Amino acid sequence: xxxxxxxxxxxxxxxxxxxxxxxxxxxVLIPIIIxxxxxxxxxxxxxxxxxxxxxxxxxxxxxxKRVDNDFLATALRETCEELGVEKSDIxxxxxxxxxxxxxxxxxEAYLGILNISGLDDLEIDKxxxxxxxxxxxxxxxxxxxDQYFTRLxxxxxxxxxxxxxxxxxxxxxxxxxxxYSLPWTNGKHRVLxxxxxxxxxxxxxxxxxxxxxxKIREILDRKI
Length: 224
Known about the structure:
This protein is an alpha+beta fold.
């Protein structure tokens, strides 16, 4: 077979994440509410009954190929379930990007406007969401987040509860460089933190709102 004839069919335009199926794939919606001609960002505090309890997040969740045609469908489905709104209440503005988190999570992030008159219009799912709150979008455009770091290490083995060492990557058997038989680091990972009057917003949620703010600032700078 002449594989050259197939090459054009596998070349992708734009960003394509190799090995995406091996990650935890999810999608979120960054909800904007307009009150008195001012834009606010809606955040939610996760309930104590779910994964990552008590953390600040945007509505969203894991991609479910059985019910979701695409990642936008995931973001909309989860937003409707968690906030108690209808799809018709959401004007989707588009996708702001894809975040690949260092712990093996891929987040597809969308931006949308909730056509509601206030938080009292929501019927939040208390099983998943403890409460919701609003912060003016201006705050993130004008406020620089604090920056911290964590260090990630890769371990070619683990020590089980019974003290027995389980080899995950057989370095010696594969003839790999000996240095990989010991844990190694892939460097520091940036952690952004916004200290707001309501809550501390950090991690993936902070990265997403930071990205949105940067995009808005870039547009504003071009207009000056």
